[in-house]
Design brief:
Elements: H1 3-30, E1 41-45, H2 52-68, E2 72-76, H3 83-91, E3 98-103, H4 104-113, E4 124-134, E5 136-139, H5 148-157, E6 163-166, H6 172-184, E7 189-192, H7 196-205, E8 210-211, H8 215-223, E9 228-232, E10 258-266, H9 271-286, H10 288-295, E11 300-301, H11 306-326
Parallel strand pairs: 1-2, 1-3, 6-7, 6-8
Antiparallel strand pairs: 3-10, 4-10, 4-11, 5-8, 5-9
Length: 332
């Protein structure tokens, strides 16, 4: 090698080191909470457009974007009971620019009963809980039953006369009823449907006798007296229907399963960014206008820290895994 080449090598090395340090500094700056977000954020809704979850995603995105001063684009990604959207989210760059609305299906019941292409705990960064709507035990009003005790007594005396519909195997509407069968030592035939709509049709027609849908979905039928409510899940009565007692009040502990919603991102997101998103999300939940809007839809807002939300997810999966094991429920 010539003397000129020998002299140039350290210079090139210095340039390379300086450029590398500059790049690293730029990346660090781009991911710092003070500079985040510097471009639009994608919020994946793991359902097709339309419906409750999609509507919630857009309401949260609109308010969160104002708080962050950056556009948030809702992208619908249905299929596989939320598995497709969850897998895409888990494989995205953990930079805070791809988020997802997680819910009881993607991060509660499905992980408890199915083999999924993602790990609901390890593959995600919990940002925060949004809220939950309880599930309600409803029956066809033609049954000679006025309350939960009478329902259980009737089921024990008529083991071949009761069937219940669900939105499909492994859903909350299925596992919640199996939990009741186990706790009350009763028998009912499970009739799974492809969605809650057809299940309602047969309940109203008397083809099935009971169901455990969300309270929000049941309210129109309750108002028109086409179904009768016996009990709701959760720790306290819903302000949307305060006359319906909780399972806990009626002597059945552990019926805390609800249709919950939260925000997650890919695993290994920088903690400062996850914290910033959590703070801004909780500001949305603290808004009186948003609170009133969600209350009218039978949802209780549940602000949490990322750690609290992570623990909630773990506990929910454990709850339904226990029911699935005891009832020998496993879905391919």
């Amino acid at each position: 090698m010539s003397k000129t080449s020998n002299r140039q090598a350290p210079i090139f090395l210095s340039y390379f080191i300086a450029a590398s340090l500059g790049l690293l500094t730029g990346l660090t700056h781009a991911q710092s909470p003070s500079n985040y977000p510097s471009k639009p954020i994608k919020l994946i809704a793991p359902v097709a457009a339309g419906g409750g979850l999609d509507n919630l995603a857009r309401k949260v995105a609109d308010r969160l974007s104002k708080n962050l001063g950056q556009t948030i684009i809702v992208e619908n990604m249905g299929g596989g009971g939320g598995a497709i959207a969850s897998q895409v989210t888990a494989k995205s760059a953990p930079d805070g620019y791809t988020l997802m609305i997680a819910y009881v299906g993607t991060h509660g019941t499905n992980p408890a009963v199915r083999k999924l292409p993602y790990d609901a705990i390890k593959d995600f960064t919990p940002i925060g809980m949004i809220g939950a709507t309880p599930n309600v035990l409803i029956i066809n009003p033609d049954l000679p039953i006025k309350n939960l005790k009478e329902f259980i007594d009737y089921a024990k005396k008529n083991p071949a006369k009761l069937s219940y519909g669900s939105a499909g195997p492994g859903t909350l509407t299925h596992l919640g009823m199996e939990q009741l069968k186990l706790a009350a030592s009763i028998f009912m035939v499970h009739v799974p449907y492809r969605g809650i709509g057809p299940a309602y049709t047969d309940l109203l027609a008397g083809q099935t006798q009971a169901m455990l849908p969300t309270l929000y979905a049941a309210i129109p039928y309750l108002k028109s007296n086409r179904v009768r409510a016996l009990a709701v899940t959760g720790q306290k009565r819903s302000s949307a229907e305060p006359n319906i007692p909780t399972f806990k009040e009626l002597g059945f502990n552990g019926f805390d399963g609800q249709q919950w919603y939260g925000v997650v991102g890919p695993a290994h997101m920088p903690e400062p960014i996850a914290t910033k998103l959590n703070i801004e999300l909780n500001k949305v939940l603290a808004s009186p206008e948003f609170n009133q809007e969600m209350t009218s839809e039978a949802m209780t807002l549940m602000p949490m820290s990322p750690t609290q939300f992570a623990n909630y997810i773990k506990e929910d999966i454990a709850r339904w895994a226990k029911v699935a094991k005891e009832r020998h429920i496993e879905i391919e």
